[in-house]
Amino acid sequence: MPKHPVISIVDDDVSVRDGMSDLFKAMGLVPVTFSRATDFLSSDHIDNTRCLIADVQMPEMTGIELHRSLIQSGKVIPTILITAYPDEHDRSNALRAGVLGYLVKPFHNEDLIACVRSALGPSQAERMEP
To answer: What is the CA radius of gyration of the chain?
Structure first.
């Protein structure tokens, strides 16, 4: 298992994946990126992912469907959903399903970092570089 927490990022937009990856690398975390939810589900990173960030609107499987799939398979990973197309019904359903955060693009890095710190818990969050 990596020394630093693994943050898995699932988004079909390469610029979003790269931007978040750079942010988390600078903070001493280990980002792993995927362009599709199915790629994440078939990866070896599920068991060492400490926080999952997923886009709501993606081809094949949405971020909400990804979260539900993980829960149904017994994998409880703190999940943050991000979207450029906010929908109050989706937000409410996602939060009721146990999603940790629902951020609307463009969001402030500070808001994302706060969600990730919450997902990691105090012992791992304190290891994050500023």
So the answer is: 13
Which residues, 6 or more positions from 111, have their beta carbon under 8 angstroms from its beta carbon? 103
Q: What are the CA-CA distances from residue 44 to residues 1, 32, 100, 118 (Å)?
A: 11, 11, 23, 24
Pairing of strands 79-83, 101-104: parallel
User: How far, in Å, CA of 23 to CA of 37, rounded?
Assistant: 21
What CATH class does 6-125 carry? alpha beta
The residue ranges of every structural domain in the chain are 6-125
The amino acid at residue 120 is L
Distance CA 28, CA 114 (A): 15
- What is the tens place of the pLDDT at every residue in 60-116? 999 999 999 999 999 999 999 999 999 999 999 999 999 999 999 999 999 999 999
Q: State the pTM of this model.
A: 0.93
